[in-house]
Amino acid sequence: MKLDKIRQDIRGLSDGKIFLNNAGSSLMPSIVVDSMIDYVELEEQVGGYEVANVNAEVLEEFYDETAKLINCKSSNIAFATSATDAYAKALSSIIFKEGDVIITTVDDYISNQIVFISLQKKLNVKVIRTKNLSDNELDLEDLENLIKEYNPKLIAVTHIPTNSGLIQNVEAVGKICKQYDVLYLVDACQSVGQMVVDVEKIGCDFLTATGRKFMRGPRGTGFLYVSDKVLDQNYAPLLLDMRGANWTEFDDYELFKTAKRFEHWEISYASLMGLMQATKYANAVGMKNIEDYNKKLSQKLRRNLKNIGFKVWDQGNNLSSIVTFCGPDGDLENIQKVLKNNNIFFSVTYKNSALIDFTNKNINGIVRLSPHYFNTIEEIEKVSEILKNSL
Ligand SMILES: Cc1ncc(COP(=O)(O)O)c(C=O)c1O
Fold this sequence. Notes:
Strand order of the largest sheet: 2-8-7-6-5-3-4
CATH superfamily of the largest domain: Type I PLP-dependent aspartate aminotransferase-like (Major domain)
Oligomer: single chain
CATH class of the largest domain: Alpha Beta
Largest sheet: 7 strands, mixed
Number of helices: 15
Helix content: 40-55%
CATH topology of the largest domain: Aspartate Aminotransferase, domain 2
Number of strands: 15
Distance between the termini: 35 Å
Bound molecules: pyridoxal-5'-phosphate
Structural class: alpha/beta
Low-confidence stretches: none
């Protein structure tokens, strides 16, 4: 990895900030921003339809680059305006009936939990959460027993939760889903762009991701992966439009074959162009390189924080580039003040965003630092030193 070049490609780093909020919204490479500005400037001149026609081939590269990123075919990819948009469309394609069961985890993302509860309230769907083992890993035996007992319609797992360093063993869950032939939805919002994500290995039917976090794309972008199995079974969003189907008869339509049937016709092509460039950039750097380097950064940071005396709340055998901690006596305020004063970018998560996890941990919130491959070990040491002096 050419770290100097990678850092030169980020205009946002020119003021000396230390940017450690990649799990929130990362810094885009200059090519991502420039491609979007160029695109909109062309739209200003000739109108959006003309620019889309002229750029049709380049825009298609979005599907090829994303397919390369997660190891599938271009026909399995749909553009989305966010991870939540992708998630909602995937869920809407499953026709839930009263009594149907969704199995999820205690660490799944707040919005996923809310949408499941909404389905519970509106359709009388039953939501069951698997147990965690004492080391905070998913209890796969419990999951298998729940499948046997409830014959669920869907299993939904967040690969990397927003609020802890955990990486869930989504591959092991995938094997169980295959064995029992259950639909499997993976929220990879925090893992795509941060580490290698391989849908073949995971064995999921749907996978959702966002653009602005570890992918380093623009806001208002994301994507949905839809497996061939699910496409062949004619799954499509409940509220699809002319992007999803051909209107063949007064009262009938024919679904289009590819995952694009999960898109809406109108999208921001400038944003799609930006996400395409971000994905191309990640592919060029190489996801394995990015993953290995991110591990080094986060392990170093976690070790330093523990040694200094902070409480690090990441629990699990396999931890990610999301580092969560608080002061020795639970303090969040002073840490935030010190980080802000030193031009260090971070975020804070409070209990309402991680209700089950933080209730179990008996904490009200955490400070989150999320390094990414453009950060340096020197930056990690500097932040650690600043925090050490704040105690
Ligand atoms: C694990 C996880 N899933 C889903 C989302 C939602 O992503 P978006 O805001 O792009 O819909 C987030 C956002 O923080 C997240 O961390």
